[in-house]
Amino acid sequence: MVALVCLAGGGAGFGTAAAVATQQSPLSSSERDVDTDCTTTATTTGTTSTDTVGTATQTTTTEATVTSTTTTPVSTGINTTGTGTSTTTTATTPTTSTPCTTTTTPSTTTTTTSTIPATDAPPPAAPPSKALSALQHTLDDDLNQQGGDNSALVIDETTDRTLWNYGAAIPRLPASVEKLYTTTTALLEFGANATFETRVFGVGTLSPSGAWSGTLYLKGGGDPTFGSARFDKAMYGTGATVQALVANLKAAGVTRVSGSIVGDESYFDSKRGGPDTHYNANLETEGSLSALAYDAGFTNLLEDRLQGNPPLTATKAFAAALSAGGIKVAAGTTVRTGRTPAGATLLTSISSPPLHTLMQLTNAPSDNFFAETLLKDIGARFGRGGTTADGAAVVRSVIATRFGIHPQLDDGSGLSRYDRTNPEQVVLLLREMQSNPSFWKSLAVAGVSGTMQDEMLHTRGANNCRGKTGTLHDVANLVGYCTAANGDKLVFAFMMNGLTDSTAGHQLEDLAGEALANYRG
């Protein structure tokens, strides 16, 4: 991904009195333009199993059959049992009796109950010692060399004691640390194996020889990986490719297409950016947002230019891939954007990688496009629509319900200057989620991977500390876990705002991380 920082100014002020972050939803839900007139009924049978997610206990019902009837023109494009593999559905002639009925066998429905932590306050202070005094002195020096408005918290998870509390209740700009709230919500609500579907619908007829006469609809389902095989391989090493989708369509019996090809992005709104860019397309988003994004909205592998019309670009790429994949496309075929009608028949689909893989592609490299796309996925499925505001509202609600904390969340990636959280809130989230393998594996590892690949090299912290960085032009944050030299597991959050040099701030945080790894209790 292109390394970019937000150029907006300003930083959070520092004070001696603890402050509590408040919720804020600056955007109206009226910005959405997706279908919300959906009524769903389901018949389920099967067995149940439980999986512990932090303090939340997740109950999963594995169904033998799930039948959903809805007045929405097409299905949502989410598969909660996906494995990242392609799926194929044999084409049939459209019917008008039950145009909104889909049957999936087997399927999974997830409901979750949780135990909210009694408080987000850190545990009692550790008893004084020479080693602790030395650690506190080192951390204080490291984090304050650049000035700025700084807050920090270090917890010894093994002893359940606070090693260092430096204004930990004061709200700060989270920058990309915000992605932890977004991906945690996605994980808890969708489930680790959920996938997002890009689907091909049709209105027309399929002859015995495989000739399709009518209109094809390419329906986006909020998959951030959908694109060309070349782009996905270079950027992600995985993904749902247009070539695989065409192969699925061919396997469904389609050999020739005569009629229009329409791209449908209506699962999300059509705003290409987040609140930091007034919802306009911008390279800082690391892509152009759409439910039918193709190659993340970029025109090339350099990621230095954005497409003018992402859904139309995706549809044109699909049409070209049809011809390249052995499906003949009639000359003069019209390619345009629009909405999939209620009577359309599902012909085939392609699944995204599972959510746990999408989390790794979001958190470790700190991908803004993935985070903002997942936020809209959350809003589309669990909120009032596929918009940034609706997704953020769901995240705020889930984080408050599951963890009892109230960070101020305006977007999914942390680019917004209206986002606020504090070390107490971040550390509580980290403590509650540390036993979840999908969350743990999504983090960058010092000296090894993601945005921490070049941090703490040749120190005890390398391949030991893991976590999430956050960077804006005046912000350097580092949060995560380190195993101390005495074997204790430490959970920490260093948040530096109001800096003149965020790179220097990260270098100081590297030193702080090394100090944690060298701590002997």
Q: Strands, helices and their partners?
A:
Layout: E1 46-53, E2 56-63, E3 66-69, E4 78-79, E5 87-88, E6 101-104, E7 107-114, H1 130-144, E8 149-156, E9 161-166, H2 179-190, E10 195-206, E11 211-219, H3 229-235, H4 242-251, E12 256-258, E13 261-264, H5 310-324, E14 328-329, E15 335-337, E16 345-351, H6 355-363, H7 368-382, H8 388-403, H9 423-433, H10 437-441, E17 444-445, E18 466-472, E19 475-483, E20 489-497, H11 502-518
Parallel strand pairs: 11-12, 11-13, 12-14, 13-15
Antiparallel strand pairs: 1-2, 2-7, 3-6, 4-10, 5-16, 8-9, 8-20, 10-11, 10-16, 17-18, 18-19, 19-20
Helix pairs in contact: 1-11, 2-6, 2-7, 2-8, 6-7, 7-8
If you had to describe this structure to a student in words, what would you say it looks like?
The protein has 521 residues and is of the alpha+beta class. Helices cover 25% and strands 22% of the residues. The chain has 11 helices and 20 strands. It has helices at residues 130-144, 179-190, 229-235, 242-251, 310-324, 355-363, 368-382, 388-403, 423-433, 437-441, 502-518; strands at 46-53, 56-63, 66-69, 78-79, 87-88, 101-104, 107-114, 149-156, 161-166, 195-206, 211-219, 256-258, 261-264, 328-329, 335-337, 345-351, 444-445, 466-472, 475-483, 489-497. The strands form 4 sheets. Strands 4, 5, 10, 11, 12, 13, 14, 15 and 16 form a 9-stranded mixed beta sheet that branches. Strands 9-8-20-19-18-17 form a 6-stranded antiparallel beta sheet, sandwiched between helices. Strand 10 (195-206) and strand 11 form a beta hairpin. Helix 6 (355-363) crosses helix 7.
